[in-house]
Design brief:
By secondary structure, the chain is an all-alpha fold. It starts with a helix and ends in a 9-residue tail after the last helix. 81% of the residues lie in helices and 0% in strands. The relative contact order is 0.15.
Amino acid sequence: MNNSTDKNQNLASKISAPSSHATSWILKLTIGLIGMFAFLQVYSIQAVLPVMMVDFSATEVQAGMIVGATVLAIAIMSPFLGMLSDAVGRKSFIVGALVFLAIPTALVAQSSSIEWVGIWRFLQGLSVPGITVVTIAYIGEEFEGRAMTELMSFYVSGCVLGGFMGRFLLGHLHELIGWRNGYYVMTAMTLLGAIWVGKMLPSSRHFEANPNFRSAIQTLGEHVTNRYVVTACLLGACVLFSLVGCFTFINLHLADKPYELGTGALANIFAVYLLGVIITPLSTTLLRRFGSARTVRVAIIISMIGVLLTLVTPLWGVIIGLAVMSSGVFITQSATISYIAVNVKKGRSLASGLYYMGYYTGGTLGAWLGGIAYARGQWSLTVWLLLFVQVLALLIASFGMIKTTRRAT
């Protein structure tokens, strides 16, 4: 009887454990949900930004900085949580970070000033790298080849879906129950996400703890001189600069004349994000056929065309421009993340942390400089700022993402 039980348990563990060659639909769903819950809160505030500016008598730059507060915290914490995760593990880190994320989300609803919103938004950002950085490391360790690329695309699709859902839900929740109560609803959703991940995500099989701080510092030194890591960090900074700058201040542009859209209508605009959920998995095919460098260059050019289209007057033209711009950004992000996973074999979590540090530093700058540009020249000057950064991204992809004979660390 005991032998039979042991055999059944062994069989169950083999079925539930990650495989380097195949992935189950429940694992794909769970990885996608991790990405979704990680980003559900990060940009949700953009949908109610015009309302908050009125409620708290805030300026454009202050509005940009409460968006950037979360992004800044993510940038600061990403490499450190990566190092800590390399020492203690993966799954428990992801679940714990989701639980912690729910606390400041609830506190945003109680804010009495724009400064308090910024503080709670900053605390939200402290927990996000514990989800994002560690998940990328988990996928890179537990899977290889096509399975890894496939799961990475599901993760990015989940991130895209979370970016959309946060904005869409909060915008419509504000019209129904107010943005404060809306944040309580999103708190409950985040806690449910933590429970799901705790039950459904298989435990690591290939994780090897590295609690040696000196070794981590040595790995950090290798990464900051690694061409693959540095290129990905710079490219990521340009990518999120463009995305945050565009989708933060397009709200102010569309809330103003001649559009004068309310929070519900602004939330609907973010439906263009859903294109990313469809396009990102398809980018796997592009990566296998054309490689990261060529795919990224084309995606950046597509994104630049989309930004230019937002300058047209009709609302439908602006929406098309946002759809084209975001599609290019999502393909670029997926290709860059895969670029790190494929080329970096040592200290993956730390490498992912450095990538996210660069990525979210770019987002912070996008929120800050975008606010200055919008205050001085409205949407047209903001567009030219975004185009300048995308040209930089194109140069980085053209000269940095070139395969060398040197083995990646």
